[in-house]
Design a protein that fits this description.
- This protein is an alpha/beta fold and 300 residues long.
- The protein has seven helices and 17 strands.
- It has two domains: 174 residues, 3-Layer(bba) Sandwich (FAD/NAD(P)-binding domain); 119 residues, FAD/NAD(P)-binding domain (3-Layer(bba) Sandwich).
- The strands form four sheets. Strands 1, 2, 3, 4, 5, 6 and 17 form a seven-stranded mixed β-sheet that branches. Strands 8-15-9-10-11 form a five-stranded parallel β-sheet. It has a three-stranded antiparallel β-sheet with strand order 12-13-14, with no helix packed on it.
- Helix 1 packs parallel to helix 7 and helix 5 runs parallel beside helix 6.
Length: 300
């Protein structure tokens, strides 16, 4: 069988594309390495997805998967792709598939610090998304780690409702744009720790403190904090892709306005592509948009 579209990755972007493709009468193949849901499965509580007052990421993922009643869903790791011909060939660890269009929806993972208890405290005070989890720290103390625009924006965002925000950066100067840096410095709620690096998270069931080290003096200080937001970048999941797909300096796939890559009929959606906001709702938007783009192209 030659599928109309083959989607690699069953996160919110991939599942939305599968849903819209299915409803458009297309033959849809959805390939997932492990389990559906992507990063949202690790979210204990999702409050900012329209239509739900509150839902776990795992439950939201299962709800999305239940809607995919007329597609082909397969699990397995992609071993090779031939994307140069009109009919694309996808080889997984289990079988081979053919498709006219390929949508890459493999997401990106936040860069981690690598502390021994980082995984254990994730969702219990450690987060990688201020927009997702910031509201849980209303009236509390939060700490942001990073020096780029994302970290600066996160600190400003959290200062809207947190009592105190600590901003930790390993260098003496921030890497963000000058206007945002000035806003951060002028905000009385934001306490800046430049030339400091985090070296330990403290807490058993929940995070209670973060230990910082001064990069000049090697002196350490323990700061009480209810939450820490790690904003040191993302790692797009692109290691399986063949050479030839255009990416930027941080390995995000570059797409045009129709979400197509530089290869004909090869698209990228969700966190794997170059974009500013990484949220479940924006991933779903990409999934809907890409099917619309494919339909327009077919009808040309």
């Amino acid at each position: 069988m030659i599928y109309d579209i083959a989607i690699i990755g069953a996160g919110p972007a991939g599942m939305t594309a599968a849903l819209y493709g299915m409803r458009a009468g297309m033959k849809v193949l959805l390939l997932e390495k492990a389990f559906p849901g992507g990063q949202m499965v690790s979210s204990n509580y999702v409050e900012n997805y329209p239509g739900f007052v509150g839902i776990s990421g795992a439950e939201l993922a299962m709800n999305m998967k239940k809607q995919l009643t007329e597609i082909t869903y397969k699990t397995g790791e992609i071993l090779s792709l031939n994307l140069s011909e009109s009919v694309k060939i996808l080889r997984s660890s289990k079988e081979e598939f053919q498709a006219k269009n390929v949508i890459i929806a493999t997401g990106a993972n936040p860069r981690k610090l690598g502390f021994p208890n980082e995984e254990r405290l994730t969702g219990r005070g450690v987060s990688y998304c201020a927009t997702c989890d910031g509201a849980f720290y209303r009236g509390k103390t939060a700490t942001v780690i990073g020096g780029g625009n994302t970290a600066l924006d996160d600190a400003l965002y959290l200062a809207n409702f947190c009592e105190c925000v600590n901003l930790v950066h390993r260098r003496s100067e921030f890497r963000g744009d000058a206007t945002t840096v000035e806003k951060v410095k002028e905000n009385e709620k934001i306490h800046i720790y430049t030339e400091h690096i985090p070296i330990e998270f403290v807490g058993e069931d929940v995070l209670t403190d973060i230990v910082l080290k001064n990069t000049n003096t090697n002196e350490t200080v323990s700061i009480p904090t209810d939450g820490v937001f790690i904003a040191i970048g993302y790692q797009p999941n692109v290691s399986f892709l063949p050479d030839g797909i255009l990416k930027n300096e941080t390995n995000e796939i570059i797409t045009d306005k129709d979400l197509m890559t530089n290869l004909d009929n090869v698209y990228a959606i969700g966190d794997v592509r170059r974009k500013e906001l990484r949220q479940i709702v924006t991933a779903c938007s990409d999934g809907a948009e890409v099917i619309s783009a494919i339909r327009r192209k077919v009808n040309v």
